[in-house]
Amino acid sequence: MRLGGLPRPSPRDAVAGFSVALVVVPQAIAYAQLAGMPPERGLYAAALPAIAAALFASSPYLQTGPTAQTALLTFGALAPLAAAGSDRIVELALLLALIVGVTRLLVGLLRAGVIAYLMSQPMMLGFVPAAGILIIASQLPTALGARTSGDGILENAVEALVHPGRWSAAAIVLAVVAVGLIALGPRLHRLFPSVLVAIGVGVAYVQLASYDRDRIGGVPEGEPPLSLDLPWDDVGHLLLPGVIIALVGFAEPSAIARTLAAKERRPWDANREFLSQGAANVAAAFSGGFPIGGSFSRSALNRLAGARTAWSGAATGVAVLAFLPFAGILSDVPKTSLAGVVIGAVVGLVRLRPLLRLRRYSLPQFGVALTTFALTLALSPHIERAVLIGIGLAIAVHLWRELDLDVDAEVVETTLHLRPSGVLWFGTAPRLDGIFLRLLADNPGVERLVLHLDGLGRVDLPGALALRQLLQDARDAGIEADLADVPARAERFVERVLLREHDPLAPPREDT
């Protein structure tokens, strides 16, 4: 049964959504800290946007809200323009969320979801672990309780590590407890609320030990601020980062949704998911949030908790909305515990073995991954530039490989057999022509040319015209030229271009 074009909600969706809300509340304030936002902004980003996403979602399990990777990308885009925690960075984050949302909506409406696959796997194998390292590095000073004065993420992490005299034993213990609970909790029970317990331990310590050193402080209570007042003059500064976040940030939810769809043997529509994620980010822009995406851990929890439809995501948003009037109880949450939550959530992203394995299979693709990895670290906080370069390298490697056309040649008596294999296009046509001319020079007794086409995967129009010219050159040299082994899928194209008496693109001949 369906209700208003959407699946009918199930009671299990409400239970699953509430279960996810218990996790997303502490995670949201942690990821807000990572993005340079005040803590309440994370709650706003987890409320109305989750409801908007549920209205269009293709996956019944995908949970939309603040994520570590998107938060890092947001911080990278905004840090050069405004100070963390300032009113200015909040305003820019709203505009950035709108750009991300509109971009994803356009991709979905144009049914161009395939554009997500521009994020090649080798590029992502380099970017994701580097992003994980940066996220962990950004939380290290807080987890160690160390004050730092550097300007960059890695510089601050190194400064904190090399000055153990600045460390706080209490901060380290709270961070380790949080990381440990997140790592070990699922082994106790698949639904064990690790994040909630970690935050609860931190709050209990603050209250029992009067530990006021790194409390997040006052968290405003009340519903999210609804406003259309955005810093429109800054669109030019944020357009490119916004588009990159829209595409890179979609890689995670698309991977989640595809994986869960395969497990459940359900269909999945990338275009519809783009619409869902776009609507969520537009909602975040107008309700006090920042750019968001799909969470793997929360989506997995949603499924395990019994979710049946996308209404579970809406239930999570409603639960967060209901919590906002009581958000002040989070004031005692220590930042150290939040840092531990972030580290525990992303440590699994730092997987270098798959990156290194690429070297065994493809040196060019390994180069793409390694370069993206290095540039992500070197260019932080401008990691969107590393992503852009990684995409460019992946495309360049593909084009380079497309230039590789193999041509098998055999001379039998006075007949030259040519069998090109690969993709024939205007970039590879000169190679075929050069090989043919060299073979003619080396075999002056050739009287017949047979061009076998069964090895060609694809022939575009310029490639077909190059084949036509090659046949014509052979005939001009007094050589009989024929085609053989024409694939069935190319027969009509060959007839229209190669077998016509006159060049199909030549101007009509005038009678003289």
Written overview of the protein:
By secondary structure, the chain is α/β, with parallel strands linked by helices. It is built from 20 helices and 9 strands. The strands form 3 sheets. Strands 5, 6, 7, 8 and 9 form a 5-stranded mixed β-sheet that branches. Strands 1-2 form a two-stranded antiparallel ribbon. Helix 3 runs antiparallel to helix 13 (311-323) and helix 6 crosses helix 7. The longest helix has 30 residues, at 235-264. It starts with a strand and ends in a 15-residue tail after the last helix.
Tags for this entry?
single chain, 5-stranded mixed beta sheet, 512 residues, 9 strands, 59% helix, alpha/beta, two-stranded antiparallel ribbon, 20 helices
- Compute the average pLDDT: 86
Please provide the ordered H/E string of secondary-structure elements. Answer: EEHHHEHHHHHHHHEHHHHHHEEHEEHEH
- Helix/strand-derived class? alpha/beta
- In one word, what is the shape? elongated
- Poorly predicted regions are none
How many angstroms separate the termini?
A: 75 Å
**Percent helix range:** 55-70%
The count of helical stretches stands at: 20
Portion in strands: 5-15%
Largest sheet, in brief, is: 5 strands, mixed
Tell me the total number of β-strands. 9
Integer-rounded radius of gyration: 29 Å
